[in-house]
Amino acid sequence: MRSIKHLLTLLFAAVLASGLAGGTALLAPGTPLVAHAASPAPPDGRVVVDRGHVDLAPRFVDGAWRVQVRDGTLEPSVWRETDDVVFHVRDTAELTMPDDPAYAFVGKAAGQAVHVVPQTEMPGVVWIGWNTQDPGVIEGVKRQIAYTLVDVEGPGDLLLYLQSGNLTAPQVLWDSRETGLQDIFMDTNVHTHGNWIFTEPGTYLLTVEFAAELADGTPLVDRKVLRFAVGDSADTQAVFDAVPAAAEGKTETRGNKGGAEAATLAGTGPFGLPAEAVTAAMTGVGAVGILAIGVIVAVAAVRGRRAKAAAAAELVHARGPEREPAKAGETRA
What we know:
Blueprint: H1 4-16, E1 47-49, E2 52-61, E3 64-71, E4 78-80, E5 85-89, E6 94-96, E7 113-117, E8 126-131, H2 135-140, E9 141-153, E10 158-162, E11 171-175, E12 182-186, E13 191-193, E14 195-198, E15 202-214, E16 219-230, H3 236-241, E17 263-265, H4 275-282, H5 286-301, H6 305-315
Parallel strand pairs: 1-5, 2-8, 5-16, 12-17
Antiparallel strand pairs: 2-3, 3-4, 6-7, 7-14, 8-13, 9-12, 9-15, 10-11, 10-14, 15-16
């Protein structure tokens, strides 16, 4: 008989490490999403989203490169400025750390509580992803897009990772304890969800960037702040009013100086999976089908060091030698 410890570990892994690695990977284009109501918007247009599907994405708005939030909690979905959105990670997202060395990277002991936004949707928990599916992005961007964690301010640690199934180790994308910039390289037309772990409740401000190049070599970059209220007791209004202090000093060039290794996510369709691969995976049923998808995702999500180095070299001048904060919607030459 399996031990209680083993069962608890599998339960934690099942929540955080679904083989779907972003549930929308299996949705056909145009499939409607279930809408959840966001909190009522005050006159200034601010919203607190505590459940349902939202994505961070670069777009071309009036010809300018802009990073915005796609709010899929409404039908039809709407685009919002990042400063107008607080992601409220309620206590419904609280999980207990298992006694499993695979999750030692979180830095919390077994039995301690963390707040988790999982990579597959859970009732009552906001579901946060990112995508590069804007038509202008797909048509105009050359090669890969860099999604970079610049800075994190909060009472605890922030970790973002992928896990394709219970049989694979977590792939850490971001870790706020690391120094330097942490990049995720993606192809265009990719839609991904990951596991977001917050080790303490409170206010978190994440400074992130999306950088790329047009086909003619014109560099593009936009830096934005993502606002998280973690825990039921977090003051969402205070999160709206918070001003990040440290990100202004982040001027390194791209390259994870002392930080985590860059991750590369590939793709030509939803989550970057070829249509024939998804179809083949779906011929399985139950755990077999999920495992097949997990294997495909594991293969698609990680590329060799040469591809990462080439992407980094090609995109490093998208910001220039100094990492100065970009103005909203700025296109840099």
